[in-house]
Amino acid sequence: MNSLQVDPYALLHTTEFSGLARLGWERLRKSRHGDLPGWLDHIDRLPVGNFNCDLNRDAPVLGAPVEEPGMLEKQLLKLQPWRKGPLQLGGISIDTEWRSDLKWRRIAPHLELGGCSVLDIGCGNGYFGFRMLGAGAKLVVGIDPTLIFVMQWLAMQKMCPGLKNFVLPLGIDDLPANTKKFDRVFSMGVLYHRRQPVEHLEQLKSLTRPGGQIVLETLVLKGEGEKILDPQGRYCRMRNVHAIPTLGSLLRWLEQAGLPDAVTLDVSATTTQEQRSTRWMTFESLQQCLDRENPFFTVEGHPAPVRAALLIKTCP
Known about the structure:
Rossmann fold, 7-stranded mixed beta sheet
C-alpha cells in the first residue's frame, strides 16, 4: 500500500490543531516533487514497526530491531541526506550530519515542557520533536517545507507509529496568523534565513499562548554593541543568509517585536565535531565551508559560525 493512501496526520486531526493537519495533508497529497514516487517506494519497502521507543536519549530509539537490518539500512540510506539526529531506527544507527544531541544538551536544562503543546519551526525530520516528547511535551507540531525531511519522518512513523510528533510540509507563512495556541514555540536555525527578522520574531509571538515561551536559536556575530553582518553573496556556502546580528542587535530586534523578556542560555561556536559529513549525509559540510588556513573564518572571509540560544517569555 502506498504510504500516502492513509493520512499520516490522523492523530493530529483529533486535537485543537486539526486545521493544521488538514493543511499539511492537502499539501502532501498535492505535491508534484519529481523524487516523491521514489521516496514513497523506499518507505513502502520498510517493515511496519511497533510502539517501541526510548526518546530521552542522545539517539532516540524508534522501533524494535528488525530481522533483516541490512535491507532496512539500504532503504534508509536512499532517503538521505539525513541532517538531524543521531537516531536509532529499527536497530539501525543513523549518524546524521548534525550532532543535534549536543544542541539539545545545551538548552534542555532550561526547558519546562511537561504537558505542553509545542510548535517546532524548521523542524527537519522531527529529531527535536522526539526529544521534546521525551522531556514531557504532550504534542509536537513540526513544520518544514523541505519534502525529504517529511519523508524521513514518514519512515520513522512507520517504524514507530503512534507518537504525537508530526512533521508537516509547511513554512511559517502557511500558518494562520495570530493563533496564540502553542505553549512553546521553537525557532532554531531559521532567523538568519528570513529577510525580515523582526517580522519573524513577531510571528513567533503571534503563535505563542500568553504566558508561554519561545526558544530562539540562531547565528550571532561576536562582539559588543549593535552590529549586523549582511553577507553579500554566500555565508558558509549558503545562499540564503540575510543578517547575522550581535547579541546586542538581536536583543534590540526582540524588543522591537514586543519580546523584551529574553534570557541568553548559551553561546557556542559550531565545530566540525558537531556538524560534519557522514555516510548518511555525503555532501559537503562545515569543514568544507571554513578557511583551510584559518578555521575561525569561512571560505568567504566571514567570521565562522557561532550560535546563540535564548529563552523568551511572552506576556501573560
